Amino acid sequence: MISVPTALSIVSEVVYAPKVNTVSLKDANGLFLGENMISSIDMPPFRQSAMDGYALLLHDKNSYQIIGEVKAGDPDNYTLEPGQGVRIFTGARVPDDANTVVIQEKVIRSENIITIDSEIHPNQNIRAVGEQIKKGDTSLPKGTKLTPAGIGFLAGLGVTKVEVYAPPNVAIITTGNELVSPGEILKEGQIYESNSIQLETVLQQLHIKTINKYVVQDEYESTKETIRQAISANDLILISGGISVGDYDFVKEALSELETKELFYKIKQKPGKPLFFGTNNESMIFALPGNPASSLTCFYVYVLPIIQKMMGASKYGLSRTTKSLTTSFIKKGDRAQFLKANVIGETVEILEGQSSAMLYTYAVANALVYLPEDANSTEKGSEVETILLPQ
């Protein structure tokens, strides 16, 4: 059994070469750039008005003659003399001769003459050519996660396609004779299966599109064959349950016979002690505990960084911070603990219902409090490491 820091270190040292695909920009949300994006244009490509108002060629008086109008999209380039200007609108091209834009609220207009009732300065309210980015500069670096804002930014530079790291194909293998699908009638001794939909949902939240689901009964040969099939068709395999040491837990034995390289098995933590991580050919394999809260905790702490690495992210893992405890907490035993919690401002509250089988607490939590092995009693007001859950 290894420590949490050792397990995290093993995860961080895994080497993986992400695959690169070309996709339409509109289909790239949530994916990571596989190349540096170089701008092919200046943005803005012309001097641009930042306000509705008047573009002027300054002189030593406060009145100006207005000789025309420029709307956004107009190609016109008026020639101005000192003391002349044009009516202009936000986003429109500023005439080459103009050296300031005065907002319309600062102007009194009578026919084609305006009078300015406030001090004005050269170059005010004018966006310079290339103010946002210059032609030939890196617009977004390799490894950037594409968000709606990033996609909009690239679209504004004329980009239609991007090279991105391809998300992995992921298999979810569910084990357990006692499990039935939601919607079916429960018989004595049965429970509804939730881990697969829980894992599928969090994978979809990570913008993984290819998710292959397998169901296997607690029988050795079928367990082994299902894992073999999953390895042949997927980059990442998540196995739910069957990894402990019960008489009907066959996953560990099947993985061994399939010549899976074990990187670690069992972590000195609560929940999620019976966690397996290994590789087989080019596939990564996690055998997660069957208890739902244990499974989700192990996913967030250990699986998520691997997925981010497989997707080409430049940073791995959930955000961690330090918060002040709202109440004292006594940790029993010598294992590290991940406790479901709620962050409120600069404080964090450890929630009731920490059983590894309880998902209700997870459903209302927004964080995990991490207490290392050597932490025993934690007093109210103590600063604790806090892992922020995705919302």
TrEMBL record:
Keyword Metal-binding present in the record's keywords: the answer is: yes
Task: Indicate the segments forming the MoaB/Mog domain, all copies.
Answer: 171-309
State the top-level EC class: transferase
Q: Which PROSITE patterns match?
A: MOCF_BIOSYNTHESIS_2 (PS01079)
Pathway where this protein functions: Cofactor biosynthesis; molybdopterin biosynthesis
Q: What is its EC number?
A: 2.10.1.1
What this protein needs as a cofactor is: Mg(2+)
Q: What keywords is this UniProt entry annotated with? A: Magnesium, Metal-binding, Molybdenum, Molybdenum cofactor biosynthesis, Transferase
Matching InterPro entries? MoaB/Mog-like_dom_sf, MoaB/Mog_dom, MoCF_biosynth_CS, MoeA-like, MoeA_C_domain_IV, MoeA_C_domain_IV_sf, MoeA_linker/N, MoeA_linker/N_sf
- Function per UniProt: Catalyzes the insertion of molybdate into adenylated molybdopterin with the concomitant release of AMP.
Q: Give the UniProt family note.
A: Belongs to the MoeA family.
Recorded protein name is Molybdopterin molybdenumtransferase
Q: Which gene encodes it?
A: glp
